[in-house]
Amino acid sequence: MEKYIPKFMDHLYNEDILEHIRFEEVRDAFHTNQIESKKEVIRAFDKLNARRVLYIGAWIGYLTHYLLREYPVEVRELDVDFRSKIISNMWNWDQPGYLGNMTMDIIYFRDWHEFDTIINCSTEHVSNDWFNLMPMGTQVKMQSNNLKHKTHINTCDDLEQMKQKFPLSHTVHASTVEFHNYNRFTLAGIK
Q: Model's pTM, two decimal places?
């Protein structure tokens, strides 16, 4: 996963990107905890046959870049932060399978049927409405955590609580990664 970090850093020489991302965000995006969390998503991703992916909360598009380089998939990103679109488009525009980034709140998204797989690595930032809107039978890979933070409105105390909040008809991956100040929970399967 780390092998694409230098390429992203090269993009930081582009002043257009620097207008839209702060140093703290780059630091946070490539923090060991974030990379280890994304590796757990990849472990879950390997257990399902994804072809067309909707990635909710794509942030800077790093996981998107990894998926497009390593898997034969198409990925559409969706994020409420318009800066995500600017950064990810610069980073991923030339990748085969990149379907672009939409700036919108997930509760207004209606084209669920176009995707066989949904990724949401930040369920702690949104209500469960997105999950309730997703059709039954959809593959999903999601993460949450128990970190208390002002932007976290929907954390889980543990993996069992996450399973209750996001019930799956078939689970292929469920794990907890322990960090020094919080735990990251990953759940994947079929809704």
A: 0.92
